[in-house]
């Protein structure tokens, strides 16, 4: 007890006499750091006779609190002194505008990607990525889109070489193939990322945009799993239960394939977002085609699954009520600052 009283007095005196923040730091380290004086006292407590331990422990903790309080008040004293010095210095003008503190913010696409990543992570999904320059094999061939298949025309492709072996990926579905070849089933994964299409741009078309692929490979997977997963997704994004419906849709890599619509989150009877229909076309999806499983070495007699291709850019636009997709990647700070 005597030791801690002495230590407290010593520390207080030193702290009160310190003239700079550096000195305070040094004292703080000496007393409070791991391996410092307080830690040493606490470590010695167990070696004391039983009845003395509680009081000794309390005294050591008290020392810590006293030092912390003394440090705080000394820091305040230094700050006040610095301010006073500044005020009395020549040329000081308290009416000049302050230097504006620039504050960055996350891009709305990053914000939503992080939210969705958390949501799917909680459901056991891995988060994968893949290259933006893809092989024709991953982007088309192994997804059941052979060379002369008319479905290639659904996506206007940027080609990277004269032979067309490399492309800018037109969809995140390319990473499905990489995932299936790399991972052992069962697995679940999402793939948020940038995709590219040779597109005439307008308010709803951009040559570069974001998608988030989803892929679940397991035994006994049905359309019910797909629907319930999509409902969890919508609840996460819009904060409440949202009705969905499936319409048939054609994509070579799923069978059956669907277009999933969500009840318009913004109206009851029709609005401009849902084009007066009360439904919003939200994402294409389906049950993974056996040819796709086979092309990646997975036995379709044993394994099955579902996949979906969420238009991330579109969902960001819905969520934040953005009217033109081209704003997303234009890098205009006046636009971006609204999302801080
Ligand atoms: N990759 C398709 C596209 O970009 C979207 C898509 C449709 C992805 C169906 C899927 C799916 O996973 O099952 O147009």
Strand line-up in the sheet with most strands: 1-4-5-9-8-7-6
Provide the CATH topology of the largest domain.
Answer: BirA Bifunctional Protein, domain 2
Proportion in helices:
25-40%
> Which kinds of small molecule does this entry bind, naming each only once?
3,4-dihydroxyphenylalanine
Give the helix/strand class.
alpha+beta
How far apart the termini lie comes to 53 Å
The unreliable regions are none
Considering the chains and any ligands shown, give keywords for the structure:
340 residues; alpha+beta; BirA Bifunctional Protein, domain 2; 2 domains; seven-stranded mixed β-sheet; two-stranded antiparallel ribbon; 9 strands; 40% helix; 18% strand; elongated; binds 3,4-dihydroxyphenylalanine
Topology (SSEs and partners):
Blueprint: H1 2-17, H2 21-32, H3 37-44, H4 53-88, H5 108-122, E1 126-127, E2 133-135, H6 136-139, E3 166-168, H7 174-182, E4 187-196, E5 208-218, H8 223-238, E6 244-248, E7 254-263, E8 279-288, H9 290-295, E9 304-311, H10 312-320, H11 333-336
Parallel strand pairs: 1-4
Antiparallel strand pairs: 2-3, 4-5, 5-9, 6-7, 7-8, 8-9
Helix pairs in contact: 1-4, 2-4, 3-4, 5-8, 5-10
This protein binds 3,4-dihydroxyphenylalanine.
Please characterize this protein's 3D structure.
The chain is of the alpha+beta class. The protein folds into 2 domains: 2-88; 108-339, BirA Bifunctional Protein, domain 2 (2-Layer Sandwich), CATH 3.30.930. The protein has 11 helices and 9 strands. The strands form 2 sheets. The protein has a 7-stranded mixed β-sheet with strand order 1-4-5-9-8-7-6, sandwiched between helices. It has a two-stranded antiparallel ribbon with strand order 2-3. A hairpin with a 5-residue loop joins strand 6 (244-248) and strand 7. Helix 5 crosses helix 10. The mean pLDDT is 93. The structure holds 3,4-dihydroxyphenylalanine. 3,4-dihydroxyphenylalanine binds next to strand 7, strand 8 and strand 9.
């Amino acid at each position: 007890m005597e030791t801690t009283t002495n230590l407290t007095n010593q520390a207080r005196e030193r702290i009160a006499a310190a003239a700079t923040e550096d000195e305070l730091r040094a004292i703080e380290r000496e007393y409070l750091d791991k391996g410092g004086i307080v830690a040493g006292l606490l470590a010695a407590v167990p070696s004391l006779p039983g009845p003395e331990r509680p009081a000794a422990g309390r005294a050591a903790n008290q020392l810590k609190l006293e030092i912390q309080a003394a440090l705080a008040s000394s820091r305040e004293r230094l700050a006040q002194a610095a301010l006073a010095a500044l005020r009395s210095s020549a040329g000081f003008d308290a009416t000049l505008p302050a230097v504006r503190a620039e504050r960055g913010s996350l891009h709305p696409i990053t914000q939503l990607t992080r939210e969705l990543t958390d949501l799917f992570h909680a459901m056991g999904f891995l988060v994968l990525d893949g290259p933006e320059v893809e092989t024709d094999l991953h982007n088309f061939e192994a997804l059941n889109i052979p060379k002369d298949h008319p479905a290639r025309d659904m996506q206007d492709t940027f080609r990277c070489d004269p032979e067309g072996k490399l492309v800018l990926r037109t969809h995140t579905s390319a990473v499905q193939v990489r995932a299936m070849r790399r991972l052992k089933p069962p697995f679940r994964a999402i793939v948020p990322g940038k995709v590219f299409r040779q597109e005439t741009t307008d308010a709803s078309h951009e040559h570069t945009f974001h998608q988030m692929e989803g892929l679940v490979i397991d035994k006994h997977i049905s359309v019910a799993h797909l629907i319930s997963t999509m409902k969890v997704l919508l609840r996460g994004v819009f904060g409440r239960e949202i009705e969905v419906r499936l319409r048939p849709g054609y994509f070579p890599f799923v069978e059956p394939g669907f277009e999933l619509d969500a009840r318009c989150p913004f109206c009851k009877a029709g609005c401009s977002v849902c084009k007066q229909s009360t439904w919003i076309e939200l994402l294409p999806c389906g049950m993974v085609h056996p040819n796709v499983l086979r092309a990646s070495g997975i036995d379709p007699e044993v394994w099955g699954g579902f996949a979906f291709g969420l238009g991330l850019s579109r969902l960001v636009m819905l969520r934040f009520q953005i009217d033109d997709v081209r704003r997303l990647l234009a890098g205009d700070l006046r636009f971006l600052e609204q999302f801080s």
